[in-house]
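SAMPLE LOG
Freezer: B-3
Tube label: C17
Construct: single chain, 296 aa
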Amino acid sequence: MAYTDHRTLRRVLRREIAGTIGLLTDEHDFRAMRRYDSFLFDDHTTYLKHVEAVLRTRALQGSHTTVALFDPADYAEFCARTGLDPDSHTSRSRFTAELASTGPTVPYDGRPLADLLPTLVDEAVRQATWEYATTLLARLGPCASCGEDLGRAAFARASHLLVRILDTAPPGDRHLVCSVSGPPDTLVAVLHADDLAGRLDVDETEALEFTTVLAVGLATASPGGLVMRTSKPGSPDRVHGWRLRAYGLDPLTAGEVFDAYCTDAETGDLISPESNVDYCEPPDLGEEGPDPAHHH
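STRUCTURE (predicted):
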């Protein structure tokens, strides 16, 4: 009887242990891991089926599991840095444990793995974008004229502009996209702001990432833009746009917003405009022009 009680209690405790599984999302990463003898899978499709079965079993048992993006190159660097043998399941477990606290992860919520994978990849792209943008801001250093930290000044300026954009927008849910062009890649950040009876609900992580990317555009004067789409039941969606400049944002005219939305960015071909969408000049942000004597 005591043995049964102990076994029951341990089963209860196992349900309270959260777990993380490192996932090889594509064939390229999967092939990179096959060079290790301790990695027993030889087919990516079969591997994904077994991963999904494990996730479903843990969910049925009441266990919470997060899925992390397993990068073989990062894993090899981790093993070299820590002195671990990369050809070992124990080392892979150690690396996955670190991913749980530092890497991009998404909780397993019961949906098919094929639907979860894009979410995990998007999360990895978001984190990489934020880390790269943060590094760019940190490298700007102090202003040669006044000594102010340029990265911090740009972030403060971007925060102010974002608040003004959200505050002056017409009622409704807001969907914002900021893109900044430049070598080696274009940085893109997305922000959702739901209108809950006049109160905006904004995800803090999204807001941080969005502000950081906007700050890079302001600080580096790289080509870029910001677009906001406002949606309200019973009304056409309203689309506004701004062009990034060194000091802040230049509003796009309704015609410029229309052209931007109705032109294929890669081919230059015209795209039919969406129905029930108004392309509008943005609200006045109440911004003053740049100080001609000195500005960042």
